[in-house]
């Protein structure tokens, strides 16, 4: 530093050397940190994984679905065949739903011993999907539909003439699941009081009837759909997901049919239960033709591994009544 001279700093004559100062240091504007205390975010991927696992575990505790359910047939006569109504695509809430037929079918099951119900998805129409024929063809708004389903399930869970839980399982459909897609709220929350398991859009039910246990593959929809072969979807479900299933039931397509066939030395059955929404706008717009009235019915035998399927619920109920009358005479 350059010395400029000396000055006296006090009355005693003490001196101090004065030096020339440097010009002020200029900091480039881009190097000025305006908020030096801003929080820095540092990510440790291992810590993130631990947090994700914890949150996922908490979420799954509230997740109402399960992939497999075991059911003991609620049979009044354990040594007699037990029948299951595959109640698929009821679409409660839509203007094109056949409410009189649906109500009659519900009451048939409620008043016929040794029978039960499995919902195969789209039990409610909901009207959440962004399509005209869904959103604008509702008889009552979605919340009222959910309350209607809740009351119906209370009846099928014990508040019926048989005083039994006759609902065996629930399967989620694309209409009912759409409320979660739109709002984040599980539609199935309205089934929380049901005693039956809620399966996601695909699942498996092991049904115990007498001395026999039957493996039933359930799906609201699966790949392999064919207009020419309505049972192909169920066969693909058996082939790729549930190879040991005795029965495969697939909904959504709004057509009806069933097929019995033998594979790997075992008789198997595929069921397409149809629908109760048969007005036709949805189906006709896609070239399917009008929907087929639902109500497929499968009989499971208690003392031999055997099933018998009816495309018409009325025929199945007539069969059950005949069997029960014959047993009463013995």
Secondary structure elements and pairings:
Layout: E1 3-8, E2 15-19, H1 45-62, E3 68-72, E4 82-87, H2 99-110, E5 115-119, H3 132-135, H4 142-156, E6 167-171, H5 174-183, E7 197-199, E8 202-209, E9 212-219, H6 232-240, E10 247-250, E11 256-263, E12 266-273, H7 281-285, E13 296-300, E14 307-310, H8 313-329
Parallel strand pairs: 3-8, 4-5, 5-6, 6-7, 9-10, 10-12
Antiparallel strand pairs: 1-2, 4-13, 8-9, 11-12, 13-14
Task: Please provide a written account of the structure.
The structure is a single chain. Strands 3-8-9-10-12-11 form a six-stranded mixed beta sheet, covered by helices on one side. Strands 7-6-5-4-13-14 form a six-stranded mixed beta sheet, with helices on one face. Strands 1-2 form a two-stranded antiparallel ribbon. It has helices at 45-62, 99-110, 132-135, 142-156, 174-183, 232-240, 281-285, 313-329, and strands spanning 3-8, 15-19, 68-72, 82-87, 115-119, 167-171, 197-199, 202-209, 212-219, 247-250, 256-263, 266-273, 296-300, 307-310. It is built from eight helices and 14 strands. The model has no long low-confidence stretch (mean pLDDT 88). Helices cover 27% and strands 24% of the residues. The chain has a single domain, classed as Purple Acid Phosphatase, chain A, domain 2 (4-Layer Sandwich). Strand 6, helix 5 and strand 7 form a beta-alpha-beta unit. The chain has 330 residues and is α/β, with parallel strands linked by helices.
């Amino acid at each position: 530093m350059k010395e400029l001279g000396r000055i006296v700093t006090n009355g005693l004559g003490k001196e101090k050397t004065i030096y020339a100062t440097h010009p002020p240091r200029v900091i480039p504007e881009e190097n000025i940190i305006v908020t030096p205390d801003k929080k820095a975010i540092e990510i440790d991927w291992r810590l993130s994984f631990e947090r994700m696992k914890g949150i996922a575990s908490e979420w799954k505790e509230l997740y109402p679905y399960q992939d497999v359910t075991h059911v003991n047939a609620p049979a009044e006569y354990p040594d007699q065949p037990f029948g299951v109504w595959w109640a698929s695509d009821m679409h409660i809430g839509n203007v094109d739903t056949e409410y009189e037929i649906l109500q009659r079918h519900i009451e048939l099951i409620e008043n016929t011993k040794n029978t039960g119900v499995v919902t195969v998805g789209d039990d409610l129409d909901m009207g959440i999907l962004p399509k005209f024929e869904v959103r604008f063809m509702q008889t009552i708004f979605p919340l009222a539909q959910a309350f209607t389903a809740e009351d119906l399930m209370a009846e099928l869970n014990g508040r019926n003439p048989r005083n039994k839980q006759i609902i065996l399982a629930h399967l989620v459909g694309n209409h009912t699941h759409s409320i979660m897609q739109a709002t984040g709220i599980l539609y199935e929350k309205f089934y929380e009081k049901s005693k039956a398991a809620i399966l996601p859009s695909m699942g498996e039910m092991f049904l115990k009837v007498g001395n026999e246990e039957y493996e039933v593959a359930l799906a609201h929809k699966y790949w392999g759909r064919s207009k020419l072969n309505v049972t192909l979807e169920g066969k693909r479900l058996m082939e790729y997901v549930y190879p040991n299933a005795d029965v495969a039931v697939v909904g959504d397509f709004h057509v009806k049919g069933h097929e019995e066939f033998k594979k790997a030395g075992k008789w198997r059955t595929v069921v397409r239960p149809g629908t109760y929404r048969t007005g036709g706008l949805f189906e006709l717009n896609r070239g399917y033709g009008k929907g087929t009235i639902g109500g497929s019915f499968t009989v499971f035998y208690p003392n031999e591994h055997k099933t018998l399927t009816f495309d018409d619920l009325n025929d199945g109920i007539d069969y059950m009544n005949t069997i029960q009358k014959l047993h009463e005479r013995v």
